[in-house]
Each structure stands twice: as C-alpha cells, then as structure tokens.
Amino acid sequence: LILIIWPIYYFVTKKNNKEITYSLMKPEKRDLKNFIICSGVVLPKEEAEIKSRVSGVLENLYVQNGDRVSKGQIIAEIGIIPDMGELVVSESGVNIAKINFDNQNVSYNRNKILLEKGIIPKAEFEKIENEFLNTKEQLNNARKKYRIIKLGNYSNVQKSNTSITSTIDGIVTLLPTKIGASIIQSNNFSEGTTIAKISNIEKMIFEGNVKEYEVAKLNEGMNVIINTAISDKNEKGVLSEISTSGKNIDGMILFDIKVELIDAKINKTGFSANAKITTNEKKDVLTIREEWITVKNDSTYVLMKKNNDEDEDEKRLIELGFSDGIFTEVLSGLNVNETIIVYDK
Q1: Does the model's pTM come out above 0.70?
Q2: Cα(181)–Cα(166) distance, integer angstroms
Q3: Which of 27, 100, 239, 263 lies in disulfide reach of 222, CB 3.0 to 4.6 Å?
Q4: ∠256-260-266 over CA atoms, to 5°?
Q5: Do strands 28-51 and 294-296 pair parallel, antiparallel, or not at all (unpaired)?
C-alpha cells in the first residue's frame, strides 16, 4: 500500500510546487491592416480575336507568337475559294447588265445626234441620258459583285477583305490556325475562324471572385497586392470593378472582381495569381498581441507587474480598437513605455 501511495503523493506535490514563469512585454506602435485574399487569373485589359470577313484558305501568315504588331498591320492573307453557284449567278448578272448598257448606249448616241440637229427637245434627251447613266452604273456594280465573289475585292488596290489586319496594338499571343487551313467568315450566324489573338500586355488586369460575406467589405479604389505564379515579385493594383450580381459555384455564392495592375512588368497572360485586398488600414497605432488580453464578463484587461514583487498583479482595464487577427489597437488604458506581464502556459 505504501509503495502505491508514495509515488502518487510525490508527483502531486511536485506539480503543485512547480515554479510559475512569466514574460514581461511592452506595447509597440505598428501599422495594422486587414486583408481579403482571393485567387484568379491575370489577363490583358485589351484583347482581340482576329477573324476573317470572307471564307477561303489561309494562304500567308506574316507573324509569329510573341511578335509585336500595331493597329492596322497586315498579319495574314486569305485566298478566296468562290461558291460556284453564286459565281454563275453573278456572271449572268454581268452579262444582262452589259446587254442593257449596250442597248442604252446605242439609244443615247442616236438621240444625241437628233438633239444636235434640233429634231428632239432637250427634256426628252435628258430622260434618255438618265437611263443610259443608270444602266452604266448597274453594269459597274454587277462587275464589282462578280469580282468580290471571285477574288474577295473589287479593285486591284483594295484588299481589305482578303488582307487580315490587327485591330489593336499589342503582341501575338495565339495562332491557332495554320497555313492552308480552311477559313470560315465571321458573320451574324457564325463566330468564324480565329486567325490570331492579339493582346495589349501594357494594360493588365486581375480577374477573380470573392465570397458573398466578403464583398460587403470591398469598395472600388482599394489597394491590392497581386502575387503571381510566374514571378517572385508582387505587383501592385487597384480594385476597379465589383460585380453587382453573384453566381452559384458548387453551392457557394461568389462575386466577380477586377483589379487594374499598375506598371506591371509582365510579358505573358492567362496565368494564375492571388490578390490580397486591403480592406482596412491604420498606421502607427499602439498595439499589443491578442493573446495578452483577458476578457471576463464585460471587462477587457491586461496584467501589469507592480514594483513590489510580493504585491498582486494589477488588472489594467483597456479599450481596444482595430485588429488584424494577431495585433490589436489599444485606444486607452496603456502607454508605450509600460510593462505587461504575460504568464507562460
């Protein structure tokens, strides 16, 4: 019985006599910030998919991935493969217009001689002249239509339909179509074949989304730090757009946001990134760690060590303000040169 009781008594006595240790801490002034972190993608603010306005075959491609192009620069040429049915109808229209023009031309020349001899009045000749000019214009239009169907343009100078030009300044980021591939024109019924994608990498944005309980904390113009997947350096940005409508993704309501990057030094697009949005910030405020604070009933206090070690610790009531989750602002009750006692657990 003694062998059983004695070890229990020994360990209980040793535990009760364990020396109490503590640390002395001082409040410090620091900057406090609150953040919202969300994930997303970095994309160019200006990006254009270049498509053709005519169907045919990609004959020439004058750019490569990474090339810088300017607005209006020719980047490709399309070879026209005309529809034979439309070509035959158009050729027939040219022949009919040519017959009408020849008939009106003979009538015009004959009546012009009669006018000069004073046989017909001028008013009658003007009517014949108008008909002659109308048939001449109809013939020109028929020939232009035939040339457009056959060659893609109606003159030797104009090549806007077959010459594909860039619509913005930027760099070539995608060339999905190879030389010799069939091209479908872009119209109201079809998106058409993408020949190239041009991106202006001088203006970049971050697109991401935040949870519904976080969106109320956001306002346009907030400072944002972008941490990218391709660089160790953080990029600075400004929150420029917050969606007014949420979307349900896997049972969670999310709101889209956009951040404009400031002086971004990036030459690639479409990579993942994280955005740290500063929702609240205070500079140079008196702070203490949250773990030093004791909350009991309606009181919030810290322990202060008195000059005489034999005296009990003083409970100092304090008023707290802004917190970043680790440090808390002290509004009143403490000075920067006072000492807090923190017992080791």
Answers
A1: no
A2: 19
A3: 239
A4: 115
A5: unpaired
